[in-house]
Design a protein that fits this description.
alpha+beta; 3-stranded mixed beta sheet
Length: 189
């Protein structure tokens, strides 16, 4: 079998295509740029499963009315250092970027801020949001819990699916999501 070269697409060409696709699906230029950036950053970090391959899925979701193209993302409950954000059924990236901007702003005045987000959907590569905090010399731990129930691959039992915590800090080094087997500290250097 003949080996074929992998085609490479310049980032700006891919970004332009992605933005235009999202705009044609009902997003504003700003929101189309946000979600396109999350997909491209995912590709550049080697997380292709959460990259540009998701573009048709998100566009179809928008066109079919499965997500709100212009969500009213807002704080619905708050304490000095915590907020609950309602995503108004917006695409997860748009909701999460807006929520993270709110968290960063609140953390500037309070020293810390935690947020919960509801009424949203798949938000792409998880590392994108802690990386937003890093740009402001802040750390950005995250924890994901959603209501879907999944069975582990190859197993018949259904369990709640909870993603392990992951953290990013200002030193731009990601700490592992879970410790290696036998490594009680959970640090891999």
């Amino acid at each position: 079998m003949e080996k074929k070269d992998t085609p490479f697409i310049p980032v700006e060409v891919l970004r332009d295509f992605s933005v235009r696709s999202f705009q044609a699906s009902g997003l504003s230029k700003e929101h189309a740029g946000w979600i396109s950036d999350t997909l491209i950053q995912s590709e550049l970090r080697g997380v292709g499963s959460h990259g540009i391959v998701r573009l048709p899925f998100y566009c179809k979701r928008l066109l079919d009315g499965g997500s709100n193209a212009n969500p009213d993302v807002r704080i619905v409950a708050q304490k000095p250092a915590s907020i609950l954000v309602d995503g108004d059924n917006g695409l997860g990236q748009i909701v999460s970027i807006k929520a993270m901007e709110m968290v960063i702003e609140r953390a500037r005045t309070q020293g810390i801020c935690f947020a919960g987000v509801r009424n949203s959907c798949h938000f792409g590569m998880t590392a994108y949001y802690p990386m937003m905090a890093m740009k402001h010399a802040m750390i950005g731990p995250r924890r994901l819990q959603h209501g879907h129930r999944h069975g582990p691959l190859g197993r018949g039992k259904v369990r709640d699916r909870e993603q392990p915590p992951g953290d990013h800090g200002p030193d731009e080094q990601a700490l592992p999501a879970r410790p290696r087997h036998g490594d009680e500290r959970g640090l891999r250097r």
